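User: Please run a holo structure prediction.
Assistant: Happy to. Please share the sequence and the ligand.
User: Here you go; the ligand is BES.
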Amino acid sequence: MEIVLRRGNLATRAAGALALGIFEGEARLGGAAADVDRASGGAIRALLKTGDFAGRWLESVVLYPSRGKAKRVLLVGLGPRAAFDARRARQTAAVAARRARDLGARVLALVAHGAGGTLDPGAAGEAAAEGALLGHYRHTAYRADAGAPALVRVEILERDATRFASMREAVERGVRIGEGVCLARDLAATPGQDLTPENLADRAREVARASGARATVLGVPQMERLGMGAVLGVGRGSEHAPRFIVLERGAARAKERPIVVIGKGITFDTGGISLKPRENMHKMKYDMSGAAAVLGLFHALPALDLARPVIGLIPSAENMPGGRALKPGDVLRALDGTTIEVTNTDAEGRLVLADALGYARRFRPAAVVDLATLTGAVSIALGHLAAGLFSEDDALAGELLAAGEASGERLWRLPLWDGYAAEMRSDTADLVNSAAREGGAILGAVFLRHFARGMRWAHLDIASTAWAPSDRPLERRGPTGFGVRLLCEWLSREATARTAASSARPRGARARAAGRTRAARA
Ligand code: BES
Ligand code: MN
Ligand code: ZN
């Protein structure tokens, strides 16, 4: 499905479906709604008069007007004008795209809702593009009944020349980010049989090639030479050897310290010798959702215009029982020399991340953020509407929380108090990898903190948000691609804040900074 921005009038566009948002409690139709109403012979006003449709948030109805160029007019409620924001604009486009797909329309025409004044046109355009892609998404790779996707094109129409001009780049960015999320969803939905660490490395190489990044993949001999005992330990029970994937983009601008983003890449988590119970074990194919988010981010990076280099690190292994598998009680030596007594082979995520954090240090990063489906406990704490955020750096935590609100991928901060660390001490080695059940998400984060010491670091436990338990406007039940939009938002804002802070610089730099501010997501 392609998304195009077109100069033109919604009312005169021939399309299988035309989507139109209506604000709640506004009797007078304005803008595109008035045009479409006129072209369709007053169909919308007639409907509103019956009271059957009031424009309540995400309420929707389909009209089949006897006049006008569109086969179907899809009305979507925008709710009260005062409550309308970029998040709602995104969801409106998502609902319209999904509905059009289900109806079998081939072309959907819509306007970027909010562009007429409630939102900045760029933000509205980006939200429309992103929302349409996300709402339309389905994972069909393994379905015999998938067929050709009905909806082949979404056209975002804008009449006004100035608004059109300021929407162009933003729509392009929305498309790249939306594609990045869909890529992450596809990867997480892929069964373990078809996504081993080796396959994941191949996918990473493809993403790098398409986004101007460099990919380096370390195999077992290289990891042995470096001393990545933790990743190697986790991968030992599997027929599919582990990989350590490094992606680098923008490293030529070496003056800037890079941002490092780490994604847990367990391609399947059986629990190992500490085997998981059978219920829901099939979902553990998504235990590489952190890695998927990093790859989705790299897909989107060319559209973000960042000054800093971005490094992606993906420690990848399959966690299996077997004759050679890691046993409870075994001691591993991580890259930084720390020894770890493995008290539970199912706490494997923190082991592979330990080596990735050790590796991150060599880049002298400005910040490190890891994303990991680390604990079931984070879902017990937060349900499925927020990921757990852990950081000792209040400024970094604040930036991430704000990016979460703006992108709609929400975070909730949990503590990292020193008192918790005592539980992770081992009698045999430096640390244990698993302790009490209570506060499980925090204990996992406290373990990681040891390996992140001295770096500006945040940990996101996305086990709660990487899989949606039921259909929502932007995502169907299943893998969500959580983290891609959050990271894009955070990195864009970070770039804007830095250029704004250095506005005392010469004119050229200031002009560039202003450009970026305008392009920033609202
Ligand atoms: N991948 C799991 C965490 C997980 C559980 C993600 C459920 C999504 C849904 C992780 O490797 C794991 O098994 N964690 C253990 C940690 C425990 C052994 C300390 C857990 O959450 O039970
Ligand atoms: Mn596990
Ligand atoms: Zn796991």
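The pocket of zinc ion (ligand 3) is lined by residues 266, 269, 287, 348-349 (CB under 6 Å).
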